[in-house]
TrEMBL record, chains A, B:
Biological-process GO terms, alphabetical: glutathione metabolic process; L-phenylalanine catabolic process
Taxonomic superkingdom: Bacteria
Listed name of the protein: Maleylacetoacetate isomerase
Molecular functions (GO terms): glutathione transferase activity; maleylacetoacetate isomerase activity
GST C-terminal domain boundaries: 88-212
One GO cellular component, as annotated: cytoplasm
Organism, as annotated: Sinorhizobium saheli
Residue ranges of domain GST N-terminal in the record: 2-83
PROSITE patterns registered for this protein in UniProt: GST_CTER, GST_NTER
Amino acid sequence: MTETVLYDYWRSSASYRVRIALNLVGEAYRSVPVDLLAAAHRGPEHLARNPQGLVPVLDIDGERLTQSLAIVEYLAETRAVSGFLPSDPIGRQRVRALSYAVAMDIHPVCNLGVVAHVMAAAEDGEAARRGWMQKFIGDGLAALERMLEHPATGAFCHGDRPTMADICLVPQVYNARRWEVDLSDCPRIVAIDARCAEIDAFARAHPDRVKP
Amino acid sequence: MTETVLYDYWRSSASYRVRIALNLVGEAYRSVPVDLLAAAHRGPEHLARNPQGLVPVLDIDGERLTQSLAIVEYLAETRAVSGFLPSDPIGRQRVRALSYAVAMDIHPVCNLGVVAHVMAAAEDGEAARRGWMQKFIGDGLAALERMLEHPATGAFCHGDRPTMADICLVPQVYNARRWEVDLSDCPRIVAIDARCAEIDAFARAHPDRVKP
């Protein structure tokens, strides 16, 4: 049995997703912090783990895996208890679509490297960052709220147990609050996020709980 | 039997992926253009189809689906011939990771709406757009090239038949060429793209072939 190791950064949304997923399937892991603010992700040691220079990287089952959602899908396939994806193809399609509405359409645009580039081009970098975050997180979550106006939405994004969509949503809501995005028009999102916060697997993965 | 309808834009990478995937599984479809340049995607008719206001939207099997990669996964699950994902969990994890290295880490950052925002903030909008595209597509494909330095890479991104990773790669290479990104350090990517171009399902999906 090989040790499961997560190369992690406490505030990374992608790492946060994988922490939630590992907790939900009850997979014990050791965390190795990669300090993005000190540019450790661009050092030779981390680039040898992942040529993209991104976190998370997960060592599990004797393999080295990258890309948070590909890891969540792997856990869904190999850990039968996960429930990360529903059993019907249309349900799985919907959960993936909701997941990607966050993980493709919001998160990459607000990633550290992208926003650094936006700040560098602006006269007032801090204001540019704040405006950028509020626009793209705000617009993206407003669209997601409308996608959740759907009969398959339950206590969680899809039905009454957490799926991959909730694993994507919670770190994005954490970021929305960090940048003071107005969520008053997103009551479904706020309610689902609150329900997730009550689950130990989500609570233990929160950045404040894993901050070095 | 319901008609399969693709709400499409000829130059959208996400639409291009779904065209390739539909062609590869031999699914006949009718194309309905949504003119992004005329902002048709933000009109009430398209927002009723997809609250995100994005293309593609696919009507298939009596359902309405959004999010290109969730559609590709749906076709992989429901059309046994697809081969879009390998049969082993580690292989599937790798194909998804390669796919997301394009579909999450390059494409959203270079999306029309995001780049319009970058241009609006810049003194010389055209130069800002060009610099932005070259940086993010260039850096992203360079990282992907290193991910392809892997024993599981074959004639295509994973093994010797096209998978979801190739479906993501080809539209991104089209965009790289459009923005004159230097691909001289990406010989694997260039070779795989050339092999895909020889396949009718890819060739028929090319923007130049479907441009209204």
